[in-house]
Amino acid sequence: MVRWQPGAPERLQKAALELFATRGFEQTTAAEIAEAVGLTERTFFRHFSDKREVLFQGQQVLVQAFLDGVAAAPPESSPLEVVASGLRSATSLFVDERRAHSRARQSVIDRNPGLQERERHKMTTLATTVADALRARGVDELAATLAAESGVTVFGIAFTQWLRDGEERSLTAIANGVFGELLDLAGKAGVSRENP
Amino acid sequence: MVRWQPGAPERLQKAALELFATRGFEQTTAAEIAEAVGLTERTFFRHFSDKREVLFQGQQVLVQAFLDGVAAAPPESSPLEVVASGLRSATSLFVDERRAHSRARQSVIDRNPGLQERERHKMTTLATTVADALRARGVDELAATLAAESGVTVFGIAFTQWLRDGEERSLTAIANGVFGELLDLAGKAGVSRENP
DNA sequence: CGCCTTCACGTCAGCCGCTGTCATCACTAG
DNA sequence: CTAGTGATGACAGCGGCTGACGTGAAGGCG
């Protein structure tokens, strides 16, 4: 006789998403989530540092994918080219089968300011980590920060588009387009700066 | 005989910053802040929606300044040029006399993850507002979002540099340099994209 | 002058997020 | 068989935050 069912964190995450989707985030207590899978509130907080985190655990694989892409870039690449490589690696994680789940999750986040705060925080963490990786490649601090932040911005915009109703392109394709648009915008502003 | 001293929100903000700086954010209760200025915890939460907000009220003037700069840009400007105009307007708010206060405030924020989350959230709000202003000028959504987000990123990086020890340039000058570096980075990535 | 409304605040009760502490008990190494 | 190990339960407690209600000074108005 097993004393506990395995996979407590995963079960909690699943139950939390379902409850948040139906009742709303604030109307769901941590104790209710725990009870839904036969655990106690105290155990919930042993697996997740706070109530919001139950929706964000798993972002580490995204960070790692981005980093892998950065590492895969040729040594002579410019900072933004390195970031683009990370972007391709990170976006390739989000295959089409994950779109429905991502939509449900994002819908919950979009309805709660506190969750949006946490999401931005995670993106910032990602940007900081990527910037560190760039500096480790020899990129100076300002360029590294700018390139990393821009890459994460592109990811965020592309991800939002990926979840839109009717969107069928892959996240990688969308991100590539957004990245190109960014270069385009900078190009337009750049020429007018050179010829004022 | 006046029943209450005027300027309760300002007094609370001042006391909060001082207490946060000495004891730390988490070690300071809302009741203590209120008591320090002769008020109750309940009144604290009447002026600030939550404990963190006491450090962020006042960001509205920054948003407005950014918007004013956007509105002041010539109609034929490219999206990033419009954003650069907003950037100049926003950064001009931070005169040298404010540097000490900004440093103290930032020091408190940098020591608490929850406050960092809130700060990022405020920056995102700013970016969204600027993007709306750009779209109102006829910029398409993707370009508006990218340009606004890039502008806020530049602001954030420049602001951090402005607060560094030994830094003596104006925030506007720093932001202008960071903005130029962004265009430069994009230029380098752009040419290699055209000639792969 | 008296009355009445407004408005900023106080008081109180209470929920919930989150934490420290200690006990419990299947499982495992020896 | 015994001594951990590790995930969980039970419980007490603090602090953030809210709703409801009361209170008194300031100001408008007849």
Task: Characterise the protein shown here.
Two copies of one chain form a homodimer. By secondary structure, chain A is an all-alpha fold. The first copy, chain A, has two domains: 8-51, Arc Repressor Mutant, subunit A; 58-189, Tetracycline Repressor, domain 2. In chain A, 71% of the residues lie in helices and 0% in strands. Chain A is built from nine helices and no strands. Chain A has helices at 8-23, 30-36, 41-47, 59-72, 79-91, 99-110, 113-136, 141-163, 171-194. Chain A is elongated, with a radius of gyration of 20 Å. Chain A starts with 7 loop residues before the first helix and ends with a helix. The model of chain A has no long low-confidence stretch (mean pLDDT 95). Chain A binds chain B through residues 78-81, 84, 113, 116-118, 120-121, 124, 142-143, 145-147, 149-150, 153-154, 156-157, 178, 180-190, 192-193, and chain B through 78-81, 84, 113, 116-118, 120-121, 124, 142-143, 145-147, 149-150, 153-154, 156-157, 178, 180-190, 192-193. The structure holds a DNA duplex (30 and 30 nucleotides).
